[in-house]
Amino acid sequence: MLAHQILFFILGLSVGSFLNSVTLRYNTGEKVTKGRSRCFNCSKTLSALELLPLVSYIFLKGKCRSCRSVISWQYPAAELLTGILFLSIFVKWMNNYPDYGLGVLFFWLLFVSILIAIAIYDLRHKIIPDSFSYALLAVAVLGNLFFFKINLAELLLSLIPSLFLFLLWLFSRGRWMGLGDSKLMLGGGIFLGFPASLSALILSFWVGGALGILLLLASSKITLKSEIPFGPFLASGILLAFFFGDFLMPFAFFYG
Question: Which residue ranges does UniProt annotate as crossing the membrane (predicted)?
């Protein structure tokens, strides 16, 4: 059991490294599957030892070995987060085995991987690519069709959070919320079902509000007019509802 947990943690680290490459190369003209990774400052091709997830960042002390430029914290953070999430998904799946087969495990891993990519990209560029949102939606729909019984009424109710975000975008003309957030929540809502989808939305506002206050207190560069992407908060809400829905749902609805 411990060996499997370690394996999934290492797998998550590797997937996190791949997701970093996807988000950095997306829409730049570079193909993710071609070309070796390189330092974005000096363009030196990185060796295999420099590409070890998390380990290389620690070994190099967060700097390029050639030009000594600082390596973004995004790389180890995304790798570590993905590793922890893959391990957590495996544990959750094992707790439900054999009711859930290997297909469900793959479904969860794939969905969360796309969700992480969306959060990373939105955090970096303040926009959610439609291709990412549509991939998340497709995985959510197909996963539920293949592995779970879909209740039509529950399915329609799970779309309420996405509709709410869409209305915020519509009435504010994009000032309060981006349309990409609504598209993200569309896939997230179908993945979670109802009422977990509503709980995820409420939790995302709580996480966003708490972090926003901390940023205001910690940095003079952050003001109430600062543009902060909401995608990572939605992703956080979806993950919290997925892993701790039964425990957090009463609190989310009560305080929301």
Answer: 6-27, 100-121, 127-148, 155-172, 192-218, 230-255
